[in-house]
């Protein structure tokens, strides 16, 4: 065998590599679609009309004059190569065909992250806005919204507060997309899910209450530092005060302290005020 002839083993490996890198159809494949998008080795058959309706980027791309010699075609459709990861792109394309997506009770973080990132990249303003609002709703920016979220034992549709890993990803996404008003509560939730949640709760929650008035017949005036959530004023007064007059003063003190602590929450994490954070959001 001459040196110019490749060995059978090498030939087999090349054939296997070529086969493994061949494009494959994704589950986003509309038989009457007019364009095939390709990301890595995954192809998606969709409609130009749907893409251009939602995205100014695809609208501009569609209007570009085509060369006389057509490029790659699949089933009579032009192939457009995109430099995106296939899985997020699949989430993005499914959302374009599913207007009821945001009415679903639960959505995964991976789906929302894909819609926010690719919605920005391809200038799908309505899709990105709906995705951002859904994500931010997991991290209330007002004390009343936070209390409603916690006191009713609402379970996060994204289960963000149950996973420190997902919370870390969410915080990175919020910073990357400049959605800073959600960071204070996101940081607070991440502290609660650390290995020392009791200490984290003490540091944050200890500022939720005004200093008890001297002589109040409370069962434990220091118990406030150990409360793991923002109790409603009525519940706190009922638990720790012995008489109606004391309960009323406790209720007022709890409300005032809670409001002060909420206003100070961003500064506890080195962030600007709530007003500045909300003004800087890129929604």
From TrEMBL:
Pfam families: BTB
Region feature Disordered, mapped onto this chain: 1-28
Residue span, BTB domain: 31-105
Coiled-coil ranges (or none): none
InterPro entries to which the protein is assigned, alphabetical: BTB/POZ_dom, SKP1/BTB/POZ_sf
Source organism superkingdom: Eukaryota
SMART domains in the record: BTB
Segments crossing the lipid bilayer: none
Entry protein name: BTB domain-containing protein
Protein source organism: Mycena chlorophos (Agaric fungus)
């Amino acid at each position: 065998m001459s040196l110019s002839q490749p060995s059978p083993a090498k030939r087999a490996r090349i054939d296997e590599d070529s086969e493994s890198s061949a494009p494959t159809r994704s589950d986003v494949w509309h038989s009457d679609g007019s364009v095939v998008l390709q990301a890595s080795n995954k192809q998606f058959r969709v409609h130009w009309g749907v893409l251009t309706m939602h995205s100014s980027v695809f609208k501009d791309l569609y209007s570009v004059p085509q060369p006389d010699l057509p490029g790659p075609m699949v089933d009579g459709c032009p192939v457009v190569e995109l430099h995106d990861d296939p899985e997020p792109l699949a989430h993005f394309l499914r959302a374009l065909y599913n207007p009821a997506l945001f009415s679903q009770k639960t959505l995964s973080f991976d789906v929302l992250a894909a819609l926010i990132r690719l919605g920005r990249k391809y200038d799908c303003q309505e899709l990105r806005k709906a995705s951002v609002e859904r994500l931010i709703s997991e991290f209330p920016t007002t004390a009343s919204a936070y209390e409603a979220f916690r006191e009713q034992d609402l379970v996060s549709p994204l289960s963000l507060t149950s996973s420190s890993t997902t919370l870390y990803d969410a915080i990175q996404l919020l910073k990357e997309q400049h959605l800073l008003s959600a960071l204070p509560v996101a940081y607070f939730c991440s502290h609660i899910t650390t290995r020392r949640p009791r200490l984290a709760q003490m540091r944050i929650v200890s500022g939720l209450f005004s200093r008890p008035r001297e002589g109040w017949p409370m069962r434990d005036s220091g118990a406030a530092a150990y409360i793991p959530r923002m109790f409603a004023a009525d519940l706190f007064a009922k638990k720790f005060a012995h008489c109606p007059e004391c309960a009323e003063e406790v209720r007022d003190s709890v409300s005032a302290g809670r409001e002060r602590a909420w206003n100070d929450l961003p500064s506890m994490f080195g962030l600007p005020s709530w007003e500045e954070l909300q003004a800087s959001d890129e929604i």
